[in-house]
């Protein structure tokens, strides 16, 4: 298989506002991406639309417009911060080629679709992703992707004592 | 964290009689283990005891002694074959230091316990593991380990068209 012997690998790293994705990215940069390699890191940030929360199941009535508005604001405010944080990590840890992607949709679907569309050799992500709040509604993104992404999936947990930026 | 900056990594690869674990091992040898590195590959083969099957749940009555005996024979017969196949892959693909481990118990528990006990930096495994028959009783080993192993877990699916030994 090409993905096995390829020298120029394309590695998709799913990033979000959670520390787990920042740690997953840093771990990948230090343990997976070869220095001076031709690897390309695709940083994928998925912004789940409101529909993701309301369309989940019969519990939609739980989400008041206040909560929705708060979550939307939160999502928009952190987006730029997350992207900058990720790029900074890449610059600091490894001089790898980075391709930034921002997609709208259920992170579970976005990650699976982009992995397929871009033909990446590997997907790297935190063990949960998308924070405690969203996870409560989305369920475990990593579980879904591990089962549905065709290429190898690396799930990185954040050790309790880990300092993400070290 | 030590596992982030360590130069001498210990990578646990869960192997079984399934092609998925053989592919996972080969993918790991080609994409994760650095050539001429000080990485140590721990090949872990878990042999689930009979108790695993009978103690699962109320469906125990489904397993006749014939089926149990057949599964036990099958398990014992393939063990040596699996280990030799794995060692052969390592010799062929990468001159990495290999540490062979055979443990008895529910593969899900054995993999999580050994990862912890050996303090490995990473666990690599096929997306299911333990074959169609055992998987029906054990459930997905990779799902369980991805959720319970503390270190990063790489889940490798076998592409439909992949030839494991190429």
UniProtKB/TrEMBL annotation, chains A, B:
Cited SUPFAM superfamilies: Adenine nucleotide alpha hydrolases-like
Pfam families in UniProt: Usp (PF00582)
Top-rank lineage group of the source organism: Eukaryota
Domain (UspA) ranges: 9-157
Organism: Escallonia rubra
Entry protein name: UspA domain-containing protein
């Amino acid at each position: 298989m090409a993905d096995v012997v390829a020298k120029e690998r394309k590695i998709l790293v799913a990033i979000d506002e959670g520390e787990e994705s920042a740690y997953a990215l840093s771990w990948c940069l230090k343990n997976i991406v070869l220095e001076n390699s031709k690897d390309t890191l695709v940083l994928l940030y998925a912004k789940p639309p409101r529909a993701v929360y309301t369309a989940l199941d019969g519990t939609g009535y739980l989400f008041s417009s206040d909560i929705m508005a708060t979550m939307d604001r939160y999502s928009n405010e952190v987006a730029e911060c997350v992207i900058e944080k990720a790029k900074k990590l890449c610059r600091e840890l490894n001089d790898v080629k980075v391709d930034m992607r921002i997609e709208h949709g259920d992170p579970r679907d976005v990650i699976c679709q982009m992995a397929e569309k871009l033909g990446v050799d590997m997907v790297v992500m935190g063990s949960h992703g998308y924070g405690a709040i969203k996870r409560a509604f989305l369920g475990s993104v990593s579980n879904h992707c591990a089962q549905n992404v065709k290429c190898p999936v690396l799930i990185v947990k954040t050790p309790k004592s880990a300092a993400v930026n070290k």
